[in-house]
Every structure is written in C-alpha cells, then in structure tokens.
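Researcher: Sequence recovery benchmark, item below. Answer with residues only.
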C-alpha cells in the first residue's frame, strides 16, 4: 500500500503546485487551498474514496503526467519555447505507457483544444499537434518493443462502443460515479449519517459552475484566455464521455468499480474550482464547511489502533476475523485491501472476481501472481458482502466446495475452510 500512498501524495502536491503557480497573491492561494482540501486531501475522505486510492495506483500515476502535460502545453502557448514542447511530449509519452486512458484524456484534450482555439497562431497549434502525435506514437512503439523483447504486456485500451440500449444506463452510472469520487453519494443511507455526503454535493455544483465559466470565456476569447483551464475542461468532458459511451461499465458492472476511470475528471474539476473561485467568499465558506464536517465525521468513525479506512460496521467484521478466523482469506475487489491494511498486517486478504464459468479467480491486477493452491495446507476464509459485489456465495461454493463453517457478521457472510480442504482443481 506504500505505492498508492506515494502516488496520491504526488497528485495532491501537484494539484496545489499548478494552482499556486497561477495565483499570485496569498489570499487567492489560501482560498484555492480551502477549495482543494475537501476534494483531494487524504485521508480526509469517505470510505469508498479510500477504496479507489488503495486499489488504483496505475490510474493515479497517470494523473501526475496528465496534469503536468497541460501545464507545459499552456507554458508553450504563452512563451513558445521548444523546451516546453519537449517536456510536454515526454510527459505525455510516459503517461500513456503507464495508462492508455491518458491517450484520451491527455492527448485527446490537447488535440480538441487546438481544433477549437481559433485565435491561437497556426504555427503554435501545428507544433502542439505534432508533439502530441509524436508522444502517442512513441509510447506505442516503446510498449511494442518492450513486449517483443520479452517484457511485460499491457492491457489494451477498450475501444468498443456501448450498445444503444446501454447508453441511458451508462449515463446514469457515470454521473453516479462522479458523485462517488467526490464522496457525495448519499443514496440508500440513513439521512442523519450522511451530512458530509450531502454537503459535498455543493462541491460538485461549484466544480461544474467553474467548468461552465471557463468553457464560456475560453470560447469567447477564441482559446486565448487560460488555455490550462480550457484543457482541463475538455479533458474532464472527454473522460465522462469516454466512460459513458464505452462498454467498460457493462464489463465492470458497479459504479464503485468504474469510478477509478473518472480520476482525471475528478482532478480536473478540483483544479478548475480552485482557480475559478479562490476569491469568492461564499465558495470558500462552503468548502470550509464541507472540510469541517468531514473531519468531525471521520474522526468520530475512526476506530482506535486502525488506519481509519473502515466504517464502524466493517470494523466489527475486522474484529471478528482477527478473533475467530485464520490469517489468510479472500475478499472482494475493493474490500480486500482495506481489511488487510486496517488489520495492520495481521490478515492477508486476496481479491477475487467471478469468471465466465461461475467460479472465482484471483484478481491479478493488484497482486503478485498466484492461484488458489497457494492456500493448500492452510486454513482460509472467504468474505462475501451483501449486497454482493465482485463475486457471489454460489461462486465461492462452486470453487471451493462446502465450507467447514458458515458465519454471519452484519452484512457479511464468512465461509471457513479448514487446513485439509483443497481448492477445486483448475482454479
């Protein structure tokens, strides 16, 4: 979990850096900090957001490259130096190697900005397009060369459009995922327990209002007014559209699972709000109130001797596992890492997902390669939440057979398998 922590620290630091560079006076920077903190500060976040951060290091790392690419593109448009052009091209290349989504949210945003920027000189627009295409193709060449010489192989970017009957559902799920990354999704919860979530809806409104203002002034100025913010707006729009129009939601299923693809939108809108409203007293006061409510609520929910990333209910599950179950187990895609970290290393919980034949398999994307026979000669448990998430109880039973014990703890079912129980062959 050290890698996600380092990367997230870099993302937050970069957001503050690029915003402060563009704000000259102390009062504006103070207001911008108040607007950034409740959106990006970690660990002052609701539990679902902590899931994204601990399990999506690759997507977070790409944010660093995307943000600084826009910074240097803006610098090139303002001063016209080839040094700025070379830096943005290298950053974009490295970012696409790490996460192909940056080809859409980074390269796509630059190209669309160049297309819409009517009053920017043709020479600078042509150079920016050339540098962008060079970065994309260089990244593709490096990845191909790496694979051809025996190196790792990356997962290609999903480019299949969603079917027509999925579009309305995709739009709803994508919008809900935006609320999730902002920690502003109160649906299905008791009213008195979701005050921070309700207050965080105002942060979404501020961000969208700021994006509209940037888009309007950018269009009226022909692209000459604040290219950095204009590229952020285009990047956020492309990110939203790419997710809503693709079959990625159908593949991943849950808004919690697909929310990680909206990291670029999240960071873009956070920086936009901080740059547009730093001197607006009402906006700063709203943001400060959200931060205070989040601090108070998170402090109240944080159990002693824990990382604080679990809810009160999940902390009860953790206590039960530590007391009555073996040290090795299987959990869902986003709860496994949190249980392991919150146990301070006492538990080792491996994420699993359902495969086509109904059995469950390890989720290799965030763990060292393994199979269920790593549990041979070891007792282990399987944690199944309700409502079900990345796999079902039926899938666990089909994979491992009848458990030695079946225990209920809150909204969870826990299956216990003894030392002499061998996982089904072929898993």
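Model:
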């Amino acid at each position: 979990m050290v890698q996600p922590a380092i990367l997230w620290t870099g993302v937050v630091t970069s957001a503050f850096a690029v915003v402060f560079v563009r704000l000259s006076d102390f009062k504006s920077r103070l207001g911008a900090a108040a607007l950034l903190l409740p959106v990006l500060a970690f660990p002052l976040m609701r539990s679902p957001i902590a899931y994204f951060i601990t399990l999506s290091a690759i997507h977070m790392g790409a944010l660093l490259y995307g943000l600084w690419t826009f910074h240097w593109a803006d610098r090139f448009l303002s001063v016209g130096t080839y040094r700025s052009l070379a830096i943005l091209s290298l950053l974009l290349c490295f970012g696409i190697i790490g996460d192909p989504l940056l080809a859409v949210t980074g390269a796509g945003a630059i190209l669309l900005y160049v297309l819409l920027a009517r009053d920017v000189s043709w020479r600078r627009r042509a150079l920016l397009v050339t540098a962008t295409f060079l970065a994309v193709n260089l990244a593709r060449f490096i990845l191909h060369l790496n694979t051809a010489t025996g190196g790792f192989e990356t997962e290609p970017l999903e480019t299949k459009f969603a079917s027509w009957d999925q579009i309305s559902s995709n739009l709803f799920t994508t919008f809900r995922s935006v609320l999730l990354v902002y920690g502003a999704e109160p649906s299905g919860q008791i009213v008195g327990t979701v005050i921070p979530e309700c207050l965080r809806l105002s942060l979404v409104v501020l961000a969208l209002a700021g994006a509209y203002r940037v888009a309007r002034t950018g269009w009226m100025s022909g692209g000459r007014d604040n290219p950095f913010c204009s590229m952020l707006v285009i990047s956020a729009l492309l990110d939203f559209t790419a997710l809503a129009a693709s079959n990625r939601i159908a593949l991943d299923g849950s808004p919690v699972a697909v929310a990680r693809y909206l990291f670029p939108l999240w960071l873009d809108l956070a920086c936009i709000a901080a740059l547009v409203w730093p001197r607006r007293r009402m906006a700063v006061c709203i943001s400060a109130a959200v931060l205070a409510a989040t601090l108070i609520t998170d402090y109240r929910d944080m159990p002693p001797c824990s990382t604080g990333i679990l809810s009160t209910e999940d902390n009860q599950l953790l206590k039960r596992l530590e007391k009555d179950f073996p040290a090795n187990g299987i959990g869902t895609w986003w709860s496994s890492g949190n249980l392991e970290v919150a146990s301070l290393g006492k538990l080792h919980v491996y994420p699993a997902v359902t495969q086509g034949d109904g059995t469950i398999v390890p989720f290799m994307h965030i763990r060292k390669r393994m199979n269920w026979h790593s549990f041979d000669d070891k007792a282990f448990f399987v944690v199944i939440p309700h409502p079900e998430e990345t796999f079902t109880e039926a899938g666990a039973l089909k994979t491992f057979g009848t458990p030695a014990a079946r225990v209920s703890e809150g909204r969870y079912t826990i299956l216990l398998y003894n030392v002499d129980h061998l996982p089904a062959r072929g898993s």
